[in-house]
Amino acid sequence: xxxxxxxxxxxxxxxxxxxxxxxxxxxxxxxxxxxxxxxxxxxxxxxxxxxxxxxxxxxxxxxxxxxxxxxxxxxxxxxxxxxxxxxxxxxxxxxxxxxxxxxxxxxxxxxxxxxx
Length: 116
Fold this sequence. Notes:
Helix content: 40-55%
Shape: globular
Strand content: 5-15%
Structural class: mainly alpha
Number of helices: 4
Largest sheet: 2 strands, antiparallel
């Protein structure tokens, strides 16, 4: 398996697919929308139940998301998990743990993309 840093993957993706009218930035927007849509759907369906649990102001979570891109370059959400593989994340983003912790507990937005 070939492991590429995100920046190199984006560059190679654009070199191959931009001539076909698809850029990584456009595809990434579709992925972000698919992820946002699933969390909006959950909130719509279960929001009252979650609020009924009590003080949720201090609740925090990290999710893993698997996405597939179809032949028409649309994002298809395959899985959302509450137990993502953080080992691989740490190998490629050593500062990532600090960013995740800062975002979850100190409301820092470094390395964060707001979807909703």
